[in-house]
Amino acid sequence: MRQQPFYPLTVEYSTSCGHIIEPQVTVRDLGVYVSNERSWTPHIKKTVQGARQMAAWALSAFRDRSTIVMPTLYESLVRPKLEYCSPVWNPHKISDIQKIENVQRSFTKKIIGCTELTYWDLSLQRRRERYSFVHVWTILQDLAPNDLQFDFSTHQRLGIKASIPTINRKAQLAVRTDYDKTFRVHAAQLFNMLPCEIRSIKTLDAFKSGLGVFLEQYPDTPPVTGDTGINNNSLLSWKQERTHLS
Protein backbone atom coordinates (compact mmCIF):
# COMPACT_ATOMS: atom_id res chain seq x y z
CA MET A 1 0.00 0.00 0.00
CA ARG A 2 2.88 2.40 0.70
CA GLN A 3 3.63 2.44 -3.05
CA GLN A 4 0.27 4.05 -3.70
CA PRO A 5 0.31 7.85 -3.99
CA PHE A 6 -2.79 8.13 -1.80
CA TYR A 7 -1.44 5.87 0.97
CA PRO A 8 -1.46 8.51 3.79
CA LEU A 9 -5.15 9.15 3.10
CA THR A 10 -6.19 5.50 3.39
CA VAL A 11 -4.37 4.28 6.47
CA GLU A 12 -7.50 3.82 8.53
CA TYR A 13 -11.27 3.65 8.05
CA SER A 14 -13.94 3.15 10.67
CA THR A 15 -17.62 2.24 10.52
CA SER A 16 -20.44 4.32 11.98
CA CYS A 17 -20.27 2.05 15.03
CA GLY A 18 -16.63 2.93 15.59
CA HIS A 19 -15.25 -0.37 14.32
CA ILE A 20 -11.84 0.18 12.71
CA ILE A 21 -11.38 -1.43 9.30
CA GLU A 22 -7.81 -2.67 9.19
CA PRO A 23 -5.78 -2.71 5.95
CA GLN A 24 -5.78 -6.14 4.29
CA VAL A 25 -3.21 -7.83 2.08
CA THR A 26 -5.95 -9.30 -0.12
CA VAL A 27 -9.66 -8.59 -0.41
CA ARG A 28 -12.24 -10.81 -2.13
CA ASP A 29 -14.65 -8.93 -4.38
CA LEU A 30 -17.21 -10.83 -6.49
CA GLY A 31 -15.05 -13.94 -6.30
CA VAL A 32 -11.81 -12.21 -7.31
CA TYR A 33 -8.99 -11.68 -4.83
CA VAL A 34 -7.45 -8.22 -5.17
CA SER A 35 -3.97 -7.70 -3.76
CA ASN A 36 -2.58 -4.52 -2.23
CA GLU A 37 0.57 -5.11 -4.30
CA ARG A 38 -1.30 -5.07 -7.63
CA SER A 39 -0.48 -8.76 -8.06
CA TRP A 40 -2.90 -11.42 -9.25
CA THR A 41 -0.77 -14.25 -7.85
CA PRO A 42 -2.90 -14.64 -4.66
CA HIS A 43 -6.06 -14.92 -6.75
CA ILE A 44 -4.45 -17.40 -9.13
CA LYS A 45 -3.26 -19.49 -6.19
CA LYS A 46 -6.83 -19.66 -4.85
CA THR A 47 -8.22 -20.38 -8.32
CA VAL A 48 -5.80 -23.22 -8.98
CA GLN A 49 -6.48 -24.68 -5.56
CA GLY A 50 -10.23 -24.72 -6.18
CA ALA A 51 -9.81 -26.20 -9.67
CA ARG A 52 -7.55 -28.98 -8.38
CA GLN A 53 -10.06 -29.84 -5.66
CA MET A 54 -12.85 -30.05 -8.21
CA ALA A 55 -10.68 -32.16 -10.54
CA ALA A 56 -9.86 -34.54 -7.69
CA TRP A 57 -13.55 -34.91 -6.84
CA ALA A 58 -14.48 -35.57 -10.50
CA LEU A 59 -11.75 -38.18 -10.88
CA SER A 60 -12.83 -39.93 -7.69
CA ALA A 61 -16.54 -39.87 -8.57
CA PHE A 62 -16.16 -41.08 -12.18
CA ARG A 63 -14.01 -44.05 -13.19
CA ASP A 64 -14.49 -43.60 -16.92
CA ARG A 65 -11.34 -42.09 -18.50
CA SER A 66 -12.59 -42.05 -22.09
CA THR A 67 -12.26 -39.14 -24.51
CA ILE A 68 -16.02 -38.63 -24.23
CA VAL A 69 -16.53 -38.46 -20.46
CA MET A 70 -13.28 -36.81 -19.33
CA PRO A 71 -13.40 -33.71 -21.55
CA THR A 72 -17.05 -33.22 -20.58
CA LEU A 73 -16.16 -33.35 -16.88
CA TYR A 74 -13.28 -30.95 -17.36
CA GLU A 75 -15.19 -28.43 -19.48
CA SER A 76 -18.23 -28.38 -17.21
CA LEU A 77 -16.65 -28.64 -13.75
CA VAL A 78 -12.97 -27.70 -13.77
CA ARG A 79 -12.32 -25.22 -16.55
CA PRO A 80 -15.02 -22.73 -15.45
CA LYS A 81 -13.13 -22.32 -12.18
CA LEU A 82 -9.97 -21.48 -14.11
CA GLU A 83 -11.68 -18.97 -16.39
CA TYR A 84 -14.02 -17.08 -14.06
CA CYS A 85 -13.41 -13.33 -14.62
CA SER A 86 -10.15 -14.23 -16.39
CA PRO A 87 -10.00 -10.99 -18.44
CA VAL A 88 -9.57 -9.14 -15.14
CA TRP A 89 -6.69 -11.22 -13.77
CA ASN A 90 -5.17 -12.59 -17.00
CA PRO A 91 -1.61 -13.44 -15.86
CA HIS A 92 1.59 -12.43 -17.62
CA LYS A 93 4.10 -13.91 -15.19
CA ILE A 94 5.45 -17.24 -16.42
CA SER A 95 5.05 -18.82 -12.97
CA ASP A 96 1.35 -17.86 -12.80
CA ILE A 97 0.68 -19.13 -16.32
CA GLN A 98 2.37 -22.41 -15.45
CA LYS A 99 0.20 -22.93 -12.37
CA ILE A 100 -2.96 -22.60 -14.42
CA GLU A 101 -1.81 -24.68 -17.39
CA ASN A 102 -0.55 -27.45 -15.09
CA VAL A 103 -4.13 -28.11 -13.95
CA GLN A 104 -5.26 -28.77 -17.51
CA ARG A 105 -2.13 -30.73 -18.31
CA SER A 106 -2.57 -32.96 -15.27
CA PHE A 107 -6.21 -33.67 -16.13
CA THR A 108 -5.44 -34.30 -19.81
CA LYS A 109 -2.80 -36.89 -18.98
CA LYS A 110 -5.43 -39.02 -17.28
CA ILE A 111 -7.51 -39.35 -20.47
CA ILE A 112 -7.04 -42.63 -22.31
CA GLY A 113 -4.84 -42.00 -25.36
CA CYS A 114 -3.92 -38.44 -24.33
CA THR A 115 -1.11 -39.06 -21.86
CA GLU A 116 1.40 -37.20 -24.03
CA LEU A 117 -0.80 -34.18 -24.69
CA THR A 118 -0.76 -30.90 -22.79
CA TYR A 119 -4.30 -30.06 -23.95
CA TRP A 120 -6.76 -31.28 -26.59
CA ASP A 121 -8.10 -27.98 -27.89
CA LEU A 122 -6.48 -24.65 -27.01
CA SER A 123 -4.30 -23.81 -24.05
CA LEU A 124 -6.07 -21.85 -21.34
CA GLN A 125 -3.80 -18.92 -22.10
CA ARG A 126 -4.79 -18.92 -25.78
CA ARG A 127 -8.47 -19.21 -24.80
CA ARG A 128 -8.12 -16.08 -22.65
CA GLU A 129 -6.60 -14.16 -25.53
CA ARG A 130 -9.25 -15.48 -27.92
CA TYR A 131 -11.91 -14.10 -25.58
CA SER A 132 -10.14 -10.72 -25.64
CA PHE A 133 -10.44 -10.59 -29.43
CA VAL A 134 -14.13 -11.45 -29.33
CA HIS A 135 -14.98 -9.03 -26.53
CA VAL A 136 -13.28 -6.07 -28.19
CA TRP A 137 -15.10 -6.91 -31.44
CA THR A 138 -18.48 -7.02 -29.63
CA ILE A 139 -17.73 -3.58 -28.15
CA LEU A 140 -16.87 -2.28 -31.61
CA GLN A 141 -20.19 -3.58 -32.95
CA ASP A 142 -22.17 -2.16 -29.98
CA LEU A 143 -23.07 -5.69 -28.87
CA ALA A 144 -21.49 -5.22 -25.42
CA PRO A 145 -21.30 -2.22 -23.08
CA ASN A 146 -18.19 -0.12 -23.54
CA ASP A 147 -17.58 0.35 -19.82
CA LEU A 148 -13.82 0.38 -20.37
CA GLN A 149 -14.14 3.26 -22.86
CA PHE A 150 -12.53 1.63 -25.86
CA ASP A 151 -11.94 4.08 -28.69
CA PHE A 152 -11.69 3.05 -32.35
CA SER A 153 -10.46 4.89 -35.41
CA THR A 154 -10.61 4.03 -39.10
CA HIS A 155 -7.58 4.39 -41.34
CA GLN A 156 -7.74 4.23 -45.11
CA ARG A 157 -4.86 1.77 -45.29
CA LEU A 158 -4.92 0.05 -41.86
CA GLY A 159 -8.69 -0.21 -41.40
CA ILE A 160 -10.32 -0.15 -37.96
CA LYS A 161 -7.87 0.10 -35.05
CA ALA A 162 -8.40 0.20 -31.29
CA SER A 163 -6.65 3.04 -29.54
CA ILE A 164 -3.93 2.20 -27.00
CA PRO A 165 -4.43 4.38 -23.91
CA THR A 166 -1.31 5.94 -22.45
CA ILE A 167 -0.24 6.52 -18.87
CA ASN A 168 1.81 9.30 -17.36
CA ARG A 169 5.43 8.32 -18.05
CA LYS A 170 6.41 9.91 -14.74
CA ALA A 171 4.61 7.13 -12.91
CA GLN A 172 6.69 4.43 -11.25
CA LEU A 173 8.05 1.78 -13.60
CA ALA A 174 6.19 -0.99 -11.76
CA VAL A 175 2.92 0.95 -12.09
CA ARG A 176 3.47 1.54 -15.81
CA THR A 177 4.28 -2.14 -16.34
CA ASP A 178 1.14 -3.27 -14.54
CA TYR A 179 -0.95 -0.75 -16.49
CA ASP A 180 0.38 -2.08 -19.81
CA LYS A 181 -0.82 -5.56 -18.81
CA THR A 182 -4.40 -4.51 -18.07
CA PHE A 183 -7.25 -5.78 -20.22
CA ARG A 184 -7.88 -2.32 -21.68
CA VAL A 185 -4.34 -2.10 -23.08
CA HIS A 186 -3.56 -5.77 -23.75
CA ALA A 187 -6.87 -6.50 -25.49
CA ALA A 188 -6.50 -3.46 -27.75
CA GLN A 189 -2.99 -4.58 -28.74
CA LEU A 190 -4.28 -8.06 -29.54
CA PHE A 191 -7.21 -6.76 -31.58
CA ASN A 192 -4.89 -4.58 -33.67
CA MET A 193 -2.88 -7.70 -34.58
CA LEU A 194 -5.75 -8.96 -36.71
CA PRO A 195 -5.73 -8.36 -40.46
CA CYS A 196 -7.94 -5.39 -41.33
CA GLU A 197 -10.37 -7.61 -43.25
CA ILE A 198 -11.10 -9.61 -40.07
CA ARG A 199 -11.43 -6.51 -37.89
CA SER A 200 -14.05 -5.12 -40.27
CA ILE A 201 -16.28 -8.24 -40.27
CA LYS A 202 -19.84 -7.43 -39.20
CA THR A 203 -21.26 -10.78 -38.01
CA LEU A 204 -20.13 -12.74 -34.96
CA ASP A 205 -20.01 -16.18 -36.63
CA ALA A 206 -17.93 -14.84 -39.51
CA PHE A 207 -15.61 -13.03 -37.09
CA LYS A 208 -15.07 -16.18 -35.02
CA SER A 209 -14.38 -18.15 -38.19
CA GLY A 210 -11.81 -15.64 -39.39
CA LEU A 211 -10.29 -15.45 -35.91
CA GLY A 212 -9.92 -19.24 -35.83
CA VAL A 213 -7.99 -19.20 -39.09
CA PHE A 214 -5.79 -16.38 -37.77
CA LEU A 215 -5.01 -18.23 -34.51
CA GLU A 216 -3.91 -21.33 -36.42
CA GLN A 217 -0.99 -19.34 -37.82
CA TYR A 218 0.68 -19.13 -34.40
CA PRO A 219 2.09 -21.92 -32.20
CA ASP A 220 0.29 -22.62 -28.95
CA THR A 221 2.93 -23.91 -26.55
CA PRO A 222 2.05 -22.63 -23.07
CA PRO A 223 4.73 -22.69 -20.38
CA VAL A 224 4.31 -25.63 -18.04
CA THR A 225 6.49 -27.09 -15.32
CA GLY A 226 9.65 -28.44 -16.93
CA ASP A 227 9.15 -26.55 -20.19
CA THR A 228 9.04 -22.75 -20.17
CA GLY A 229 9.19 -22.50 -23.97
CA ILE A 230 10.97 -19.83 -26.03
CA ASN A 231 8.56 -17.09 -24.88
CA ASN A 232 5.48 -16.65 -22.69
CA ASN A 233 3.25 -17.95 -25.55
CA SER A 234 1.23 -14.74 -25.83
CA LEU A 235 0.29 -13.91 -29.41
CA LEU A 236 2.03 -10.58 -28.93
CA SER A 237 5.25 -12.42 -28.08
CA TRP A 238 4.94 -14.67 -31.13
CA LYS A 239 4.41 -11.61 -33.30
CA GLN A 240 7.53 -10.04 -31.84
CA GLU A 241 9.49 -13.24 -32.53
CA ARG A 242 8.44 -13.13 -36.19
CA THR A 243 9.32 -9.45 -36.44
CA HIS A 244 12.84 -10.13 -35.20
CA LEU A 245 13.29 -13.01 -37.65
CA SER A 246 12.05 -11.05 -40.66
SSE order and pairing:
Layout: E1 13-14, E2 20-21, E3 26-29, E4 32-35, H1 41-61, H2 69-83, H3 86-89, H4 94-108, H5 124-140, E5 152-155, E6 159-162, H6 173-180, H7 183-193, H8 196-199, H9 204-215, H10 235-245
Antiparallel strand pairs: 1-2, 3-4, 5-6
Helix pairs in contact: 1-2, 1-4, 2-4, 5-7, 5-9
Relevant terms:
10 helices; two-stranded antiparallel ribbon; 246 residues; two-stranded antiparallel sheet
N- to C-terminal distance: 44 Å
Average pLDDT over all residues: 88
Order of helices and strands: EEEEHHHHHEEHHHHH
Strand content: 5-15%
Largest sheet: 2 strands, antiparallel
Measured as a percent range, the helix fraction is 40-55%
Number of E-state strands: 6
* Shape type: globular
Stretches where pLDDT falls below 50 for ≥5 residues?
none
Put simply, the count of helices is 10
Structural class: mainly alpha
Provide the gyration radius in Å. 21 Å
Strands across the major sheet, in which order? 1-2
How is this structure best described in words?
This protein has 246 residues and is mainly alpha-helical. Helix 1 packs antiparallel against helix 2. 20% of the residues are buried. The mean pLDDT is 88.
In short:
With 246 residues, the chain is mainly alpha-helical. It has 10 helices and 6 strands, in the order E-E-E-E-H-H-H-H-H-E-E-H-H-H-H-H.
